[in-house]
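Incident log, structure service

09:12 report received: a user says their structure output differs between two submissions of the same chain.
09:20 pulled the input from the user's history:
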Amino acid sequence: MWKEKEDQDSKWAEERKSHQREEQAWGEEKRERDRKWAQESLSHQQEHRRWEEEQRDQDRKWAQERLSHQDERDKWNKEKQQEDNERAHERNEWEGERQRWADNVRRHQEEWEHWEKERNRVRWGEPQGDERCTAYETRFYTATLAYLPPSMHWMQACMETPIEIHGVRVDSPESCEKRGSNIVGRWKVNFDEPACRTYWETFSDTGCVSDGSRKRRIEARLENLRPEYDWVEMCATTPAEIRGTHYSGPTYCHPRSGWTGMTGIWEIDDESC
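09:34 re-ran on a clean worker, output below:
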């Protein structure tokens, strides 16, 4: 019985040792696990801190980018607002300029219409012919402006107002002058003036001008000449037909016995002289 008890004690001792060894092994395993867990936890914490640091860096960058973007947006909005204001100002100025231009055009048009209306009222009185003829079929006519607009210069009105003489429109006078309050125009009329139409009497051949001159002298007296006419000019401008050739006037004139003997002299080509 004692033997059994010793065996039992020995077995328990073995079991305790085995249990102690297992407990020791479990303790080792637990410490190893705790160590690994501590290392993993530390690694995780370090990684978490790195992640948090990266996140903070990223947040700072995003914040800076958002701030920079906001600054750019604010700057763009400011520039856009300034540009819009400038364009609005330009549009207002352009609209004002367009309105002023339209007002000027309308005012000029009204002034032009008024001026044209006044201009159309300008007219000449009845033209009066001079008694004295100044050249062949030519005399001067005089007329006075019947109306002169206050806004129009008298010389312009005189030179730009046409007149009708013998049914023919004449645009401008030869001259204008102011006689007191009257504006007088003068026209040189060289058509439809039969009273100023002088003519040549029978042509006389007086022979060669001189030997070898190859010129022959022809003479004729001027008819229908009156004492108040310009004798020399009437003679010089009266045309002639001599031996089939037209001459606008004689070579020269000679007043033989005064105006009643005004003679035209032609020196015409003649190879026989």
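09:41 both user submissions now match this output. Likely a transient worker issue. Closing.
09:42 reviewer note: Helices lie at 2-121, 154-160, 231-237. The first strand starts at residue 128 and ends at 135.
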